[in-house]
Design brief:
By secondary structure, the protein is of the alpha/beta class. The chain has one domain. Helices cover about 35% and strands about 25% of the residues. It is built from 4 helices and 5 strands. A hairpin with an 8-residue loop joins strand 4 and strand 5. Helix 3 packs antiparallel against helix 4. The longest helix has 18 residues. The two termini are about 25 Å apart. The relative contact order is 0.19. The mean pLDDT is about 95.
């Protein structure tokens, strides 16, 4: 299964940190870990969006509801690249990270914050009924094992 932490939404002050580099490294490791895994024939791509903005902008950036695309073509006219984007068996979700703890954290602390937040989020996540075959329990266990493998402590 292709899994990725896609297009994180961070405040501008994150540009002065290594958070995006750290997140790209975590994303690469996550993709490698889950590459040969499958939890349902209905989910081939799993996108996780992270939001972490300073308190003054918090009200403008709310996580979107989880979405599942069975087979959809989005028209992207006027944008560089392919005109149509084909989404097939793609699930996406977003969660917020606590700015006060995540922003000042170092790489290891940041990974721990992401791990704890994501695992709590996944535990309560309600998947759309069209993908009821998705093995949530195994996916959550594998996600926990992934974070343990990269050195996170719970």
């Amino acid at each position: 299964m292709k899994i990725t932490i896609s297009n994180p939404i961070f405040s501008v002050e994150f540009q002065k940190t290594t958070k995006l580099i750290d997140l790209n490294e975590l994303d690469r490791k996550m993709q490698e870990f889950f590459l040969d895994e499958s939890y349902s024939n209905d989910v081939e791509e799993y996108f996780i969006g992270l939001i972490c903005v300073s308190p003054g902008f918090d009200e403008f950036f709310k996580p979107k509801r989880p979405k599942y695309y069975d087979d959809k073509i989005l028209k992207a006219r006027g944008l560089p690249g392919p005109e149509d984007i084909h989404l097939k068996n793609r699930f996406s979700c977003e969660l917020k990270l606590d700015y006060a703890t995540f922003f000042p954290s170092n790489k290891e602390e940041g990974y721990n914050i992401i791990a704890k937040s994501l695992l709590e989020f996944l535990e309560t996540l309600k998947y759309p009924s069209v993908i009821k075959t998705f093995d949530k329990k195994k996916f959550n266990e594998d996600m926990k094992n992934f974070f343990i493998q990269v050195g996170c402590i719970f």
